[in-house]
Amino acid sequence: xxxxxxxxGTRKGAFILTSNERRKRWSVSGPHFAGWEIxxxxxxxxxxxxxxxxxxxxxxxQVMQRSDDGGKTWATVGNTFAYEGDAGTHQWYDxxxxxxxxxxxxxxxxxLLDPDTVYAGVEDAALFRTGDGGQTWQELxxxxxxxxxxxxxxxxxxxxxxTILLVPGKPGTIFIAISAAGAFRTDDGxxxxxPINRGLKSDYIPDPDAEVGxxxxxxxxxxxRPDVLFMQKHWDVMRSDDGGGSWREVSGNLPTDFGFTIDxxxxxxxxxxxxPIKSDSEHFPLDGRLRVYRSRTGGDEWExxxxxxxxxxxxxxxxxDAMAVDTLESCGVYFGTTGGQVYVSADSGDHWxxxxxxxxxxLSVEVQTLPPPLAPQ
Amino acid sequence: MIRVVLPAALSLLARTESEVTLDIPPPATQRRVIDxxxxxxxxxxxxxxxxxxGRRRALVRFYACGEDLSHDSPDAPLPEEVVSGKEPYxxxxxxxxx
Lengths: 377, 98
Hints:
Order of helices and strands of chain A: EEEEEEEEEEEEEEEEEEEEEEEEEEEEEE
Helix content of chain A: under 10%
Radius of gyration of chain A: 19 Å
Largest sheet of chain B: 5 strands, mixed
Number of helices of chain B: 3
Strand content of chain A: 35-45%
Order of helices and strands of chain B: EHEHEEHE
Strand content of chain B: 15-25%
Strand order of the largest sheet of chain B: 2-1-5-3-4
Oligomer: heterodimer
Number of helices of chain A: 0
Largest interface: A-B, 16 and 21 residues
Strand order of the largest sheet of chain A: 3-2-1-30
Low-confidence stretches of chain A: none
Distance between the termini of chain A: 7 Å
Mean pLDDT of chain A: 96
Structural class of chain B: alpha+beta
Low-confidence stretches of chain B: none
């Protein structure tokens, strides 16, 4: 029997939740790295027992952790993230130049093929890569250096590179997104980049149609159809059918199109999930009712999914990296909240239940689908 | 033998005791103490000072003999009481935040 391992990063440590393919009974281990912020942890698609974790603290900076046994034991690896050359400046909130300063790793994306290769999206926004299992990290400077870097401005949570999408069969193609610069694409493995924000409209920047400056919260795709991208922007849910060449709004009948997270069903490329949040100043669900919205039409038409989710007095948030899908035959969908709940649906969103209810605020959720030899039975 | 007291978060990270001892060849300075800590416990690299700039982290302080040494030159000699092991060199995380 197959199984799943859910990797949960929280404000005060990491938790690992495991179950067999029925996803009814769960084992919870943790907190790992208790007391530290775990922005993200993710396993290698090429070796599921290889997991990388970003551990950070306002006091003691950035620590990187690696497990070679599925999260049972961990060892620190390299944590030097030095920008290439003269780091220069980006734009501060008040429009003045501000030195580029490394703060933390927001997102880790292991290579699809090599367990020792991992991409790291960091704040202040840059993309780093390791090819030696995390011992050393090198910046891919073409991203910050493509020309618009000095105009990038932080979002409320910082100038973070939070999304990294690798494309199966196209090792040179990477999509990334930065708050609040926008989305970018490379087709040469990260040497050169181009912004892919045409069609985005953001009324909170001087030129609503600007090439960069959009507060993209998250991008998602189904690996079988990498030219189709879905985006949760600050406001607006967007879709691109040409790999980011242009975007159109697919918010449709959503009750609010503000939100942070978005994901795509593992087997149905036109089935998309978002968690609508009331507004940019009220980061909680509408009417105190926690509802995931699902589109089975690639956007525009959305249905509320609420069975098993709290429908009164619920004022949590679901952050950008806090939703994931597994690849079991009946696709599982997972998300975590700032209230410390982690929810699972083993039937594509029709029914939900809580795996854990009282964790620290959840920052990220990833899931690994485990083959029978590795899965709990 | 220099005694160093680490904050709980760092002793847990390094999987060591909260008070550790180090042999530092003279002259013993703050920089050489931190260098020795990072060499012996690589997990602590960059946790007390930024690895790129070398600057002390803003919410980390260094105390000894009832004095705050945080703003002293990292190359200034440490007090004799610290060098002799009579008094510990204390690495402290600020009381701040949640």
